[in-house]
Amino acid sequence: MIYSEKSVALLILRMKEYHNLTQVAVNEIVQEVSSLLNASFDSSRKCLENLFNSGKEISGGEKGNVIEKFNQHWQTWDNSLNELSTPCKQEKYIKENFGFVEPEEICNGKSSCTKGVGASQVIYHKTHNIYYVPIKSTIQSLFKNQNFKQAFSTACQSKIHPDGVLENFNDGEVAKRSTIFTTPDVIRLVLYYDDMEVCNPLGRKSSVHKLGLFYFSILNLPKKLLSKLQGIFLIAVALTSDLKTFGIDTVINIIAKEITVQKGGLAAIVADTLACHQMTGFKEGVGFAHQKCRTCLCNFNDMNTKFTENEFVLRDLKTHTEIHCKSEDTVATGVNRRATILDVEHFNIFEGSPHDLMHILLEGCIPYTIKLVLGHYIQAKSVSLSQINESLKNFNYTYLDKPTKPSPILLQHLIGVVVH
Q1: CA nearest 271: which of 208, 215, 210, 209?
Q2: DSSP letter assigned to residue 303
Q3: Residue 354: its pLDDT value, please?
Q4: Model confidence over 281-292: pLDDT tens digits?
Q5: How far is C-alpha 390 from the chain's CA centre?
Q6: Closest Cα to residue 312, out of 292, 282, 342?
């Protein structure tokens, strides 16, 4: 009975979470499956009765035992479907049997709003909430899963590679210098934050319902699992407008306290430039700061004329907390406030907040550089645009690359580089 109920519950979860079916669709499918099972049961029972009535020698006691076991088997599946026939029953079973972690509702701030017009207008207080999924409860639930425990144990037994070989976080200088990541079984957490638009970004409702989402992942897993969706866990959800109005530090403060009491630490925070600056207290609009970078103290001219690390003065934690965070000249320092993320023990924001390679390189410098290179050779008549497009078309792409092969390059893509 327990096995059959679990199988039905897993089927329902797959339909809802993997295939994004609505609750109405799930309920209808459960009812239809129940009807099919009942029809199959009736048909199978008639076959058994025909067999017993065919004249073959079967004692009455044996016949009764077979029919009784058959009825019990089918009744088990029928009961399982009935036990999970409504959303309330489904939710109750999932919470009790699948390590569900209940989110908490936390007040991020309150505001006064008006409702109605004229004489009927009233003022009411609106609560702006954050929905928080405790990290501790999530980790405890994960370690109850044998597959996760095995994957965690396997990753913890992997050896650190020799100098010069970088395969995972443990091979890097930050991990080797750390005072907390000294043993393999210390949990290494990565915090991620980004916004998500749930409405049409071109419509009039854009940004009204925009959500800020916080996640974490655990680096103590085999590398093949690190980027899997199953290895990324939700921490908190809040309206982006609320985070801008009341600040992001309410969420970060809770996360910092939870990480401090875990058997582990924060290895890195991963986000785009805007989100990372919001979490670390730097100016989100870097164009308004004289010192725009969160890694060094460069100005705009230096950014355009110097390109190696030894040409810049790097930021450090002591100067940041004692001088920059207390300075009232936020435009000069590029620092808006002392961020709560600094309260996370053993975490250095200048070592643990890597820059966003996707936006900076893959969607920034690299396409622009390729554009300049192609424009140079086309202008020098070393190659033509049609020849480049023909090569792109006839290239022997692998099975995995075919769906994302490059589109033909148009002349307008190279405007400003190629002289017409």
Answers
A1: 215
A2: H
A3: 92
A4: 999 877 778 898
A5: 39
A6: 292
Q: Do 109 and 249 share a structural domain? A: yes
d(C-alpha 331, C-alpha 286), whole Å: 9
**What's the 3-state SS for 340-351?**
HHHHCCCCCCCC
Q: For 129, phi and psi rounded to 5 degrees? A: -105, 155
- Which residues lie below 8 Å from residue 7, measured CB to CB, with a gap of 6+? 80
Tell me whether residue 339 is in a domain. no
Cα 255 from Cα 351, distance rounded (Å) = 19
386, part of any domain: yes
DSSP 8-state class, residue 157 = T
**What is the full DSSP assignment across 5-53?**
HHHHHHHHHIIIIIS---HHHHHHHHHHHHHHHHHHHHHHHHHHHHHHT
pTM for this entry = 0.78
Q: How many Cβ atoms are within 10 Å of 366's Cβ, its own excluded?
A: 12
Question: How many C-beta neighbours within 10 Å does residue 41 have?
Answer: 17
Do 109 and 252 reside in the same domain of the chain? Answer: yes
Q: Is the pLDDT of residue 3 over 60?
A: no
How many separate domains does the chain show?
Answer: 3
Are 93 and 7 in contact, with CB atoms under 8 Å apart? no
Judge whether 311 lies within some domain.
no
CA distance 47 to 163: 71
Task: Kindly report, residue by residue over 323-368, the tens digit of the pLDDT.
Answer: 999 998 999 999 999 999 998 888 999 999 999 988 889 988 898 8
What's the domain range around 366? 360-414
Split at pLDDT 50, 70, 90, the class of 59 is: low
How far apart are alpha carbons 271 and 292 in whole angstroms?
Answer: 17
